[in-house]
Amino acid sequence: MSDDQIVSTAERIHDAALSLFACYGYEGTSLSQLAEAVGIRKPSLYNHIESKEGLFMSLVEEVERAFFNELDASVARYDGQGVEQRVFGLVSDLSRFMLQANQGTFHKRYLLFPPRPLLAEVRQITARSEARIDVALKDFFRQGVRDGLWHTLTERQFLDAFYVLVDGLFTERFLYSVDEYDRRVASVWPIFWAGLQR
Description:
- By secondary structure, this protein is mainly alpha-helical.
- Helices cover 78% and strands 0% of the residues.
- It contains 9 helices and no strands.
- The relative contact order is 0.09.
- The longest helix has 28 residues, at 119-146.
């Protein structure tokens, strides 16, 4: 078997696993389903993966990296702008990440419904991720303090408000069309921003 065939099979396993885990979750995806989707026999999977658990966790790590690539790009894109533009830009950019069919769905699924056997590992990764998001948000908050935007708002309230907004919007993303989702974001944003400046 040539290197090209090995890479091709590995890529097919990767893509099929991401799609199946996004659709059916960890518990709802079997290695037999995966082998069938790839077009190989189940024992052949073990030429490319160590275990279902290992495959799932490698996809979690990959999707987390993609998420933070989006976050870092957003922070850089709006650097030097006002706080509102920076926060709204981040909300919009992370929303676009969630619109990616397999990555976005898989990301949301393992955040909300981490597999019981892998709960501790997934929670460790998501805790590290939230701490990294906090770094960007705290920078936004400090800029708002320097600009005199906040009157009674604390840093913790700012972070909590951002997470509640984004989590709510991520849920909306799965319920509505892109156009309706965009309309809702545009509708709620002025209210959210005004609330921060109370």
